[in-house]
Specification:
The protein has a domain of 56 residues: Beta Barrel (OB fold (Dihydrolipoamide Acetyltransferase, E2P)). Helices cover 7% and strands 24% of the residues. It has a 3-stranded antiparallel β-sheet with strand order 1-2-3. It is elongated and about 60 Å long. The chain starts with 46 loop residues before the first strand and ends in a 9-residue tail after the last helix. 2% of the residues are buried. The model has no long low-confidence stretch (mean pLDDT 82). This is Chromo domain-containing protein.
Length: 95
C-alpha cells in the first residue's frame, strides 16, 4: 500500500472491489532516481517543519523535523547543527 494509505486496514473483502476502468489521466510520470551500487538513493531535504529542544543527559540538544519528500510527507528528526553544516540553504531566512 502507498504510504498515504497506511492508516487503512491492509485486508479488504472481495465485495469491496470494483472493476478498474482505464483512464489516460491515471498514468503517473516516474521520477528519474539515481540508484547507487549499494541500492541506496540520495535524498535532498525539502524544508524544515518543526523545532524541538531535548535534554536527555543534562545538555540541550536542538532537533528539527526535516521534510524529505514533499509529496508524501516523509520526514525525520535530525540534529539542527548537523543539518546546518550539510544543508545551510534550508536555514536562510529562518530565525
Amino acid at each position: 500500500m502507498p504510504p498515504q494509505l497506511a492508516n487503512l486496514h491492509p485486508v479488504f473483502h472481495v465485495s469491496q472491489l470494483r472493476r478498474y476502468v482505464p483512464d489516460p489521466s491515471h498514468v503517473l510520470e516516474a521520477d528519474t532516481v539515481q540508484v547507487k551500487e549499494d541500492l541506496s538513493i540520495e535524498m535532498q531535504p525539502v524544508k524544515v517543519d518543526e523545532r524541538l529542544s531535548k535534554r536527555p543527559d543534562g545538555k540541550a540538544t536542538r532537533l528539527i523535523k526535516v521534510i524529505w519528500d514533499g509529496r508524501n510527507g516523509d520526514s525525520t528528526w535530525e540534529k539542527e547543527e548537523e543539518m546546518k553544516k550539510s544543508y545551510p540553504h534550508l536555514f536562510s531566512g529562518m530565525s
